[in-house]
Design a protein that fits this description.
By secondary structure, this protein is an alpha/beta fold. The chain is built from 14 helices and eight strands. The protein has an eight-stranded mixed sheet with strand order 1-2-4-3-5-6-7-8, with helices on both faces. Helix 12 packs antiparallel against helix 13 and helix 13 crosses helix 14. The protein is elongated and about 80 Å long.
């Protein structure tokens, strides 16, 4: 169904056994998104690529790079396609080009951005490489180490050197993600920290209704650390963030801060769990005060 829809709107390109590309040409801003079939099914009610929403909402053009499973897009068929798009002048025909992806797709967004110098990269929890000589400390994807990350479009932090701006989003409490993010440190790279958000940041950004706005600002050239911080205030209503923060404060035995958090949350939200925790904290504080007296 997706292929049929794309053929009605634009172009479809088969890229080997596990990849394909879709291209819809509209206005002068091009979003290049990297996604998996599984991610599309999980995150989209109508099983359409994430970029299609931006096409409809903003009138953007869209190049969708889609894989079956997490492949990190390490496939010569993908390399050759990106080479062909570069040689055909696809990227030069747009005023602004944004590369986007999350996780393994975030790696791909950074790695293939070299095909469009002057582009903007938005990568969520990207890996820098899975080359064991560089990332032997990351055991999460050991079964994928047979892939070649030393060849063309290989080491993602080097590939973003041609980008005008790059933004790497990560939770610093996710150790492996934080270490990969550090490898992306460059003068034109802004690392955006999302502590206590966990290992599924793309999902959380969608739930907070800020991912589209974040990419819209990237497309307008107005995304920076300050504008992201304004958007990220939405975490104050995000239950995943609030619960993780409360768990951390309890673990660190910080009852005063936990009490302040619970009071803030219960004033603003219908949160029975926080109300019960607040009652327990206040009861424990009262008992402690009585013992001291």
């Amino acid at each position: 169904r997706l292929i049929s829809l794309v053929k009605e709107l634009g172009e479809y390109h088969a890229l080997g056994q596990r990849h394909f590309a879709t291209l819809v040409r509209q206005n002068s801003t091009l979003l290049v998104s990297f996604e998996t079939i599984q991610g599309i099914r999980a995150l989209s009610e109508n099983a359409q690529p994430f970029g299609f929403d931006m096409v409809r909402a903003r009138g953007w053009s869209h190049l969708g790079m889609i894989s079956n499973g997490d492949t990190w897009f390490r496939d010569p068929a993908v390399y050759n396609f990106m080479d062909r798009m570069t040689d055909d002048g696809l990227f030069d025909s747009f005023e602004r080009v944004i590369f986007y992806g999350a996780g393994p797709c975030g790696y791909a967004a950074a790695a293939f951005s070299v095909a469009a110098p002057g582009s903007t990269v938005v990568a969520i929890q990207p890996q820098a490489t899975l080359d064991p000589r560089m990332s032997e400390w990351d055991a999460r994807f050991s079964e994928m180490r047979h892939l070649d990350f030393t060849g063309r479009y290989g080491y993602a932090p080097d590939m973003i050197d041609a980008a005008e701006k790059a933004f790497v989003l990560y939770d610093p409490r996710q150790i492996e993600d934080a270490m990969h993010a550090t490898l992306f440190a460059r003068p034109h790279v802004t690392r955006l920290r999302m502590p206590f958000m966990g290992g599924a940041l793309q999902t959380q950004l969608i739930q907070m209704d800020i991912l589209y706005r974040l990419l819209s600002r990237a497309g307008a050239g107005t995304l920076d650390a300050r504008s992201f911080a304004a958007l990220y205030r939405a975490r104050r209503d995000n239950t995943t963030y609030l619960r993780t923060l409360l768990q951390y404060l309890d673990k660190e035995e910080r009852p005063e801060l936990a009490t302040l958090l619970c009071r803030n949350v219960t004033r603003r939200l219908n949160a029975p769990r926080f109300r019960r925790r607040l009652e327990a904290l206040e009861h424990a504080a009262a008992e402690q005060s009585d013992r001291i007296a």
